[in-house]
Amino acid sequence: MSDFLIIGGGVIGMMLARELAQSGAEVTIVDRKACAKEASWAGGGIVSPLYPWRYPDAVTQLATWSQSSYIHLSQDLLEETGCDPELRQKGMFMVDVEDHKEALVWAQKFHRPLREVDASFVYQKEPNLAKDIENALWMPEVCSIRNPRLGRSLRESLLKNPKVRLLEHQEVHGFIRAGNRVLGIKTEQGDVCGNNVIIAAGAWSAELLKLVGQAIPIEPVHGQMMLFKAEPGLVNRVVLKGGRYVIPRNDGRVLVGSTLEHFGFEKQTTEEAAASLYQTALDIVPELEKFNVEHHWSGLRPGSPEGIPYIGRVPDVDNLYVNAGQYRNGLVLAPASTRLLVDILLGQEPIIPADPYRVDR
In whole angstroms, what is the distance from residue 29 CA to residue 164 CA? Predict the structure, then answer.
């Protein structure tokens, strides 16, 4: 029996398994598919909330802690596995921001590097952007990470660790209970037990909690994205405009995203969204019209009230915990969300106050 049984093999679940194993614990991680193939794969990988000042302070606290940790994490994973998560430290432009004064107040309050820049500054760094930009907000420390490769490197790290057992393609159908404790889970391949059970299943977390008679306001929020096979140097930084963004990769590919839709758990792509994403891409980088669209896909975010995740013990169950509800910020909040729950599980001083993220808040 493992010390910790984690349900959900996304980035958060794998980071949890990695940190707990590094502390000396035996960990089992179970996923209904292959690890990091849901929202962790489908997202864009911006290591910052979009328009961060529009989120509650609880999100900012997690994001601030996480952003600096990605530098060391990506280096460690590359050394451990040989798989480069491709962290790009190029900064982010936010164009046509109406509430820019609120952004500057937020930046001063949280000591974040954010400032207004004029068009000449923007075009010096990104000459291929649309020529209608008059000014922008500039966050020079914002990174992006190639999330499919981050997922691959985390999975490889776990496979190399003898304290971690990976059980993929095993869907949870029920929990094994004994009084106020959860002893394990039921899957089609058999029962899996653990001294402590953690639900980190993204958009599916609320459905799993229903199996133990608990309710939590997490729901799937559908998002579609598109990928252009462009050339290196066409665009080098994350550019955000009108709530959408382009994200460059090292090989020249450019992502554009994303939609916000409520289709339940049905993942789908639509012609309407494809046309809208394509137009967004050209509105930001007109030269993308010369390049082919390589892929158009969708994913499910774990939507939660105000985007504040649930991190901690489930009420009335002594050894059941949750780490879910990061909404659009799963990747950027993952290191801090992981560390906070590890601190709770191991009885350590939390990195930040845990009350804002309580399951029973």
Answer: 8
- Please report the DSSP string for 159-201 in residue order: HT-TTEEEE-S--EEEEEEETTEEEEEEETTEEEEEEEEEE--
Token digits for 331? 């990747």
* Whether this model's pTM surpasses 0.85: yes
Q: Identify the pLDDT of residue 202.
A: 97
Q: Measured between alpha carbons, how far is 352 from 198 in angstroms, rounded to an integer?
A: 20
Q: What are 128-179's pLDDT values in tens digits?
A: 999 999 999 999 999 999 999 999 999 999 999 999 999 999 999 999 999 9
Q: Which amino acid is residue 22, in one-letter code?
A: Q
Can you read off the two tokens belonging to residue 107?
A: 């930046």
State how far the Cα of 146 lies from the Cα of 318, in Å rounded to an integer.
37
- Angle between helices 330-346 and 57-81 in degrees, nearest 10: 90
In whole angstroms, what is the distance from residue 122 CA to residue 96 CA? 12
DSSP string, 98-109: TTHHHHHHHHHH
Specify the amino acid at residue 268: Q
